[in-house]
């Protein structure tokens, strides 16, 4: 009887661990379509300054948007911090009514989920890219240069993530193709409906390169943010014959072990269970996290790389990016910032970011 009870207890433990690993793996590979949350409250507003209260930190250094359900404003520096309230400069209320009681969020993207015309006044076209799974929507801002920039957003994001960088690229007359990829809204789903963390999404980048070449591009620069910074390096490794002139990587996931372990720490999940989750991720998708470790494969890269990493990034710890830069100093121009957080290097040091972007693109494309 004791032996039976021990077997039952052991089986129960296996089921519990397996179930927890299945749940945790889903947090990594299952697309999320959650609506935006609005954790900040506007306490006061006087046309030039706004008082905010709430989480996450409304005193984050740098330049941000303030986005609420039907409006958006551009925020400048912090004026003062008193207790749990923060006063920031308001550069411009772009749309909607900013007033006490409004719930909002601090917007690193600056302009929420707008398009290039509504956010920046830039001309653009909605285009369709034909890929192996079907047609993928994308934005195309025009330019006369023969080198195109292909922008690849992060996990559960969308092409609006690229808006901050379009004015610099527009000033250099480079066309920008900001793409969607499998499992995005409006794009085809992958056969299993799961993210493959770059292991299959790179094929949608290949389709975007083919589209650009079909429109007259003679070269491309691939620009990836967060998970897009895992997809782009995989495309570069898988497409050695394509005219990829350079890579721009912003807070890239160059090794998935770091962000998966970091998310476990933030959620109070033991690291051994995160390891189980990784095992389940590989079994549910057929991918290899070792193959997606671009640091391990650093010797495969041939193109110059501009790499942005922020020391305060709690979503994708910068360690892998820094190791990659150390391994390939012949290719990598590293721009390291402080206080911007995940994909926040532009926000915390816009002049430095834009100068590095301008210098790199001019060197490799023009």
Automatic annotation (TrEMBL):
The keyword Lipid biosynthesis does not apply. Signal peptide: none annotated. Keywords: Hydrolase. One of its GO terms (molecular function) is hydrolase activity. Residues 149-283 form the AB hydrolase-1 domain. The keyword Hydrolase applies. This is Alpha/beta hydrolase.
